[in-house]
Amino acid sequence: MSNSNLFLKSGFVRAPLQNGVGRYVCQLQRIVLKFCKSHGGSRGLRDYIEQDLVDFASNNPSVVVYLKPRRHRSPVVVAEYLNGDRVWMSMHNKTHSEITKWIEVIRTQQGDVSATRLRKYQYTDYPSIQGPWTPFTYKDPKLNIVELPNAEFGANNRLPMTATEQLKIMFEKKQLEIKPIDE
């Protein structure tokens, strides 16, 4: 068994504050693009800054964008989220299109979800006290002691009555009303 999970924060899969139920609030608060003006490894990030950064900033007015030129350093993108998480991502030798995709990933996630150990794979605000649903949850308890096969329990009574069946029943009722009384 590995002890690497002991150092990860644990949590549940969930949307922060029911985000998206009423309206969507972008969880990205701040993004810092650190790059070198002359280093070749920063070329993709410089292209992104020149071509797409103004559109990104205008489409996401709630996100604060900082540019931090650094001499002879590898390009880095640091994202800070509303829940306090910081995501650091190296952009060394990445192309303009790769950086565009990674920044979109950073914009749409809610923090450092990769460093969270999931306690459960589902989460609800109102957990059930009666346990999970199974196909036998609403079955008749008499089914436990009946001898199978049984016509009563084998019938499919979950489907709604068809129009043909309703007409047959109406016809039979009419026949009973019209039927002459034997003298």
Automatic annotation (TrEMBL):
SUPFAM superfamilies: Thioredoxin-like. The keyword Hydrolase does not apply. SMART domains: L51_S25_CI-B8. Transmembrane segments: none annotated. InterPro entries: Ribosomal_mL43 (IPR039927), Ribosomal_mL43/mS25/NADH_DH (IPR007741), Thioredoxin-like_sf (IPR036249). It comes from the Eukaryota. One of its GO terms (cellular component) is mitochondrial large ribosomal subunit. Signal peptide: none annotated. It is found in: Mitochondrion. Residues 37-110 form the Ribosomal protein/NADH dehydrogenase domain. Keywords: Mitochondrion, Ribonucleoprotein, Ribosomal protein. GO terms for molecular function: structural constituent of ribosome. One of its GO terms (biological process) is mitochondrial translation. Belongs to the mitochondrion-specific ribosomal protein mL43 family. This is Large ribosomal subunit protein mL43. It comes from Papilio xuthus (Asian swallowtail butterfly). The lineage of its organism: Eukaryota, Metazoa, Ecdysozoa, Arthropoda, Hexapoda.
